[in-house]
Amino acid sequence: MTRPITAGVDGSEESRAALAWAGREAERRGLPLRVVHAWHFEVHDAFDLGDRDAQRQRVREMADETVRDLTARHPGLAVTTDLVEDEAAPALTAAAADAEALVLGSRGQGALVGFLVGSVGQQVIAGARRPVVLVRAGDEPAAEATGREVVVGQHGTAEDSAETLRFAFETAAARGATVRAVRAWTLPPVFAYSPGSLKLLDEAGGLEPYERKALTEALRPWRERFPDVPVVEHVEMGSAGQVLLATAGHAQLVVVGRRARRTAVGARIGSVAHGVLHHAGCPVAVVPHE
Questions:
Q1: Is 3.10.450.10 the CATH number for 147-290?
Q2: Which residue intervals define the domain UspA in the entry (predicted)?
Q3: In the predicted model, is pLDDT for residue 22 greater than 80?
């Protein structure tokens, strides 16, 4: 089954930037583009908003206007536009299920750190079973120039990060870009060592060589599958979020994995993904894993 690149739009500048990014990505990958606009029928005591059909028609006109410029820029791209009568978060989460990636807009950087992604974006990222890409208003196509890297965080075993690496390599292959694979590590507390782990570390020659070997092993199948994609292996001591952000200054995309957690106050997406989403200067792809 061919999965489309799907963009969620609402008429905002952020969603227009997301749509533009999605259009370029769909064209590069030879995939169709699906545009989704979620809406729900509103009744207001003080204003005549019209009946359901009238409101739907206004939403349809806005959605059509939003994609008009994009179809002019990409005349060969297959584009479908769907209006979904539902709240934004569940509608977009459902749309992600059939997408190669769901692309959403995000507000720009500012003083209110922690609120830039927005509640809808966080709910979708936490609930989506497919990659979600966040694009800020003002994102420029020039930032995707060949030579700028796709930075991806690798953690745990090769199986833990397989989907994250797959997305990074597929994106880099479509763009003619280099993959910079980043593995961060910290000194574990003494009580975390077991006889088995000490034996592995001793065989690897120490902590940092052990981490380098783990990264090399995780990358091996993807190097073989994408032999034309240049790869830089980056192992550095430090917190994963800080190391990723430090290496992403000239990236065209940062790819991170996430394991969703739900708490009494709502969905959480993990500290690394949260930090990168709020501070990276380029689009960020969040890829779910079990």
A1: no
A2: 1-136, 159-288
A3: yes
Q: Answer yes or no: CATH 3.40.50.620 is held by domain 1-139.
A: yes
**Which residue ranges does the chain devote to CATH 3.40.50.620?**
1-139, 147-290
Output phi, psi for 52, to 5 deg: -60, -45
Q: Are 253 and 267 in contact (CB under 8 A)?
A: no
pLDDT tens digits for range 158-197: 999 999 999 999 999 999 999 999 999 876 655 455 555 6
Q: In sequence order, what are the beta bridge partners of 232?
A: 180
How is 15-35 classified by DSSP, letter by letter?
HHHHHHHHHHHHHHHT--EEE
CA distances from 45 to 39, 54, 58, 91, 188 (A): 19, 17, 19, 26, 60
Encoded tokens for 78: 């297959």
Query: Letter for the amino acid at 211?
Result: E
Q: How far apart are CA 102 and CA 179, in angstroms?
A: 21
Residue 48 tokens read as: 């005549």
Please tell me the number of Cα atoms within 13 Å of 198 on its side-chain side.
Answer: 7
